[in-house]
Amino acid sequence: MRVAWFALLLAACTSKTSIEQDLCARAAAMFERCETFDTKGSGAAQTKELMVDRWRSLCRAVFTGETKQMMDNVKELYLQMDEPTKEGLRLQAGCMANATACDAYARCEQ
Fold this sequence. Notes:
Elements: H1 2-13, H2 19-34, H3 44-64, H4 72-80, H5 83-98, H6 102-107
Helix pairs in contact: 2-3, 2-5
């Protein structure tokens, strides 16, 4: 009986997100935390949210090739990228996701 409960508990605790989704979510959180966004105007918060979302979807695309969640303008940008550019974004996203402070995040762009 204990084995059945343990298996049920383990299944319930299994992450529903992929490794790439998790990495891109962490990278996007650092992007949001460390980048400077325009704070003026009534649409500033929505613009910031869209920029973070665009970065997250671009990040996912360079890892998985999945573009269905992308806005058209970001999808067009992604489709024009060559493989070395995508590899550079994968490396940058990994660095950003592992950063714990904005100074470490800034070094990811070097």
